Amino acid sequence: MARKFLDENFLLNSETAIRLYHETAKDMPIIDYHCHLSPQEIRDNKTFKNITEAWLYGDHYKWRVMRANGVDERYITGDADDYDKFLAWARTVPQLIGNPLHHWTHLELQRFFGVYELLNEQTAPAIWEKVNKQLQSEGFGARDLITRSKVTVVCTTDDPVDSLEHHTAIRELSDFHTLVLPSFRPDKALEINRDTFRPWLDQLSEVHGREVNSYDEFLQALEQRVRFFHDAGGRVSDHALDVLVYADTTREEASRIFAKALQEGRVTAEEEAKHKSYTLVFLAGLYRELDWAMQLHIHALRNNNTPMFRRLGPDTGYDAVNDGAIAVPLRGLLDGMETAGGLPKTILYSLNPNDYQVLASVAGSFQGGGIAGKIQFGTAWWFNDHRDGMLEQMRILANYGVLARFVGMLTDSRSFLSYTRHEYFRRLLCDLLGSWVERGEAPDDDELLREMVANICYHNAEQYFGFPAVVPVS
């Protein structure tokens, strides 16, 4: 007999999995250590005029499948009415069986709005009315949704030149107890050949308080901003390494390359690799000194559709999985950091699942220092955060390392409704462990397994990142 869709034991296929999820994982709080939420919207407790604004504005996951379903761009990013955009999404959802968006859409409707009907063209009008009525009532602002999801820490993604004024304002709120902390994302500092580099350097000069016109001054300014983020509670950095490179160089050579970039506007590919390498090694030393965790997001192929990039800009659903060399440059980069004084805590992600075994095995080459799980093979990211991708990542981590020390899931999201992704992950974790127990591949030790689940869901991240303070969630 077929099971009911999205019932209470959804994704749980054994008695062990059911017990682990409902008795341990289900009610654990959340640490969202990497996301793209707006700190200003959190500060303002942003409310949403309708479900389209909360769900479809900025969600390039949904935009991609709407395009693939034949929806005209006017109903995706264009000037169509919000209700018509919602209807376009409602018509798309029934076609998404097998895609995680089919699950996530209905989980969000259930968990946040008590809507258990399937979303389709026929149910859309009633769901539109029911959900919008709630969104316009008390308790559905951005902060409210975070609190309801039992989130103790949110790490936003912030440029080094950011004032962090919204983070400061959030800390002063007396009725909101989630830590909202900045993450240091210096991608523009590394991309010395992009058109964004010089304008960004002017911004860096402004916040630094003096002109950044040499490499020494550049590194001093970056250090100043790292310490500024640290004083604001930041304990995490993040780097988009879409193409992974490493080249040995000296401070003197890096200085000459920086000067050439300022004078001529361009440097060679080899010189760019040396700039990136020396700068990353320098930053890693700061992270290590301050006990930060460094995140490396590898192998995204961005902005593939030039006409649509010109029309809509980045992060609009036109990115893909990249390939290319990873083992040798990754080993070189991590070894360069280790040789220069020691690696910080580091989390490695790749958008290409073919890189998983490389990440897991290279991570094992740099563990140590008495830090449990110091070098993490990070959770299934972006195009991989579906059922198969999450399970594959955890299986490879278990085979190559210590799954019990895994820091678990994140949202990587711009949506305040995305915290059901943690539920999705936790159900899969419990089902994986339960399947091993049922087959006699893991001991049927309830105490051991419950501790492992609780640690992966929450406590490992709490201990690993060492955030300034975490308010317990009842």
Rounded radius of gyration (Å) = 23 Å
Number of helices: 20
CATH classification class of one domain: Alpha Beta
Question: By helix and strand content, what is the structural category?
Answer: alpha/beta
SSE layout:
Layout (H helix, E strand, L loop, with lengths): L14 H11 L4 E3 L6 H5 L7 H5 L4 H9 L13 H11 L7 H14 L10 H12 L6 H7 L2 E8 L6 H7 L7 E6 L2 H4 L6 H12 L6 H17 L4 E6 L9 H14 L4 H22 L2 E6 L1 E2 L4 H7 L7 E2 L5 H13 L5 E6 L5 H9 L10 E3 L9 H14 L19 H19 L7 H20 L9
Parallel strand pairs: 1-2, 2-3, 3-4, 4-5, 5-8, 8-9
Antiparallel strand pairs: 6-7
Helix pairs in contact: 1-19, 1-20, 12-14, 13-14, 14-16, 17-18, 18-19
Give me some keywords for this one.
474 residues; alpha/beta; uronate isomerase, domain 2, chain A; TIM Barrel; 7-stranded parallel β-sheet; 20 helices; 9 strands; 49% helix
Polypeptide structure, described:
This protein is of the alpha/beta class. 49% of the residues lie in helices and 9% in strands. Among the domains are: 48-135, uronate isomerase, domain 2, chain A (Orthogonal Bundle), CATH 1.10.2020.10; 185-377, Metal-dependent hydrolases (TIM Barrel). The chain has helices at 15-25, 39-43, 51-55, 60-68, 82-92, 100-113, 124-135, 142-148, 165-171, 187-190, 197-208, 215-231, 251-264, 269-290, 306-312, 327-339, 356-364, 387-400, 420-438, 446-465, and strands at residues 30-32, 151-158, 179-184, 236-241, 293-298, 300-301, 320-321, 345-350, 375-377.
